[in-house]
Amino acid sequence: MNTSVQAPTSPGPRSPDAPRPGADDSGQPGELLEIAERVAGWARSGEDVEVYVSRGEETEVRAYDGDVESLTSATSAGIGVRVVVDHKLGFAWAGSLDPSVLGETLDEARDNAAYATPDEHVQLAVADGVPAVAVDLWDDELASVPTARKVEMVLELERQTRAADPRIRQVSSADYGDGSVEVALASTTGIRASNRRTSGFVSVSVIAGEGASSQTGSGFSVGRGFEGLDPGRATADAVERAVRLLGATKGPSGRSTVVFDRRVATTLLSVISSALSGEAVEKGRSFFAGRLGEQVAGSVLTLVDDPTDPRAYGAAAYDAEGLACRRNVLVEKGVLQRFLYDTVSASRAGTASTGSAVRGGFSGTPGPGCRALTLAVGPEGYEQDGVLGAVGEGLFVQSVTGVHSGVNPISGDFSVGAEGLMIRDGVLAEPVREITVASTLQRILQSVVAIGADVEWLPGIAAGQTIAVGDMQISGV
Question: What is the DSSP string of 17-54?
């Protein structure tokens, strides 16, 4: 059993783990929901209780040099309980759903609430009448796939990648992973929610070339189940990314238009997302603070968080407090429209929750955060080649380093190491490395000149799509 006395607010965005209301996919009340309702029913007079329960299974296989290097299969289950009494919050969790543990966890949360500091904004979610959008996130066939087939897939992934190009010197890793999770939530404030979802992936990393001039690349394929995975796509992506950088030299210095690869754009949007949290704004930890309704980006940019899009890895019908997820337009034609809130952060801001609570599972408490960020596609409908053609001359950034130390979502400072290829006459040209790309997040948003239609959903809270940003500082030779 693990317990803690909770501060009035929780830290920033966590990994999404969203429930779905009412019943499981068969239409019948689920076992987990029955457990959550039973524990919530033990609430005493004068206290509000929220019960979050989950269980899951996952499998991971790694191949190396023609053999299985590791194979793990794990299950987990647990409960997290929040108790609010006189605006004091107590939280406790346990990694078990054993009947003997349920009451003990509630008692621990109740005891912790007694020692917490009162805060008028501390409260549990209450249904707000927003209807849920049905999102199908479950693959029935995944559970029936034998482990031997999963092993076979990852071994074949390594074999085909090794043979894909004579310049591939080594396959650093080839991985298969899948998981399923079922979640239920019930509270004394009337919330009843349950959900289940599956996911799977294959990934491969390679080294091309020899010695100091060697280059690395990685490729992925993700899906809701086994049959949706495409090892060939992962192989082609990894090989192309490594091989096209062979012979890279130090890049030039100056100011230039920069085209960010889809995966780099995902990283960029993920950093920006932390500044769109209402909690971060309230704490003065966002470069967007005080700018609601202002032009914060170029008119070509519309940024949306839409967890009801089933393609998104973080898709969900309901958020981590049991409120219906909804499409939130954050920036529209460059104008900052709203921030994201859970119940507590919304109360502090004097507004309503945007259905944007996320949490890392039964051992965590909710906080506001993005689940499925994406940019509206430009009117031209450009794929990556179209963006390159529109730019004409510039730098294509394939990967970046130093994001955690070089990008600050509070001040907006942006300075990262990069590698990629020069753009000449609208096509990719010579590869370059050891470049620093610098600006500020504020200036980047104002300087977006093209947004690709090549949307790619990978694990994380933001979609990848090619983005072109004008007038960035490049430091190379």
Answer: ----BSS-TTSSPPHHHHHHHHHHTTPPTT-EEEEEEE
Strands, sheet with 373-375, edge to edge from the N-terminal-most edge strand: 335-336, 328-332, 303-305, 373-375
Which pLDDT tens digit goes with each residue over 92-115? 999 999 999 999 999 999 999 999
Alpha carbon of residue 217 to chain centroid: 21
Widest distance between CA atoms in the chain: 72
The structure's pTM equals 0.90
Token pair, residue 275, equals 């500044």
DSSP class of 456: B
DSSP state of 457: -
Residue 420 has a CB neighbour count (10 Å cut-off) of 26
Note the pLDDT tens digit of each residue in 198-207.
999 999 999 9
In angstroms, the CA 67 to CA 43 distance is: 54
C-alpha–C-alpha distance, residues 256 and 327, integer Å:
35
CB-based contact 325:308 (threshold 8 Å) = yes
Residue 43's contacts (CB-CB under 8 Å, 6 or more residues apart) are 49, 83, 188
Q: At what angle do helices 31-40 and 99-115 cross, to 10 degrees?
A: 40
109 neighbors 92 (Cβ within 8 angstroms): yes
Q: Where are the beta strands (DSSP E) in 315-412?
A: 328-332, 335-336, 357-358, 367-368, 373-375, 394-401
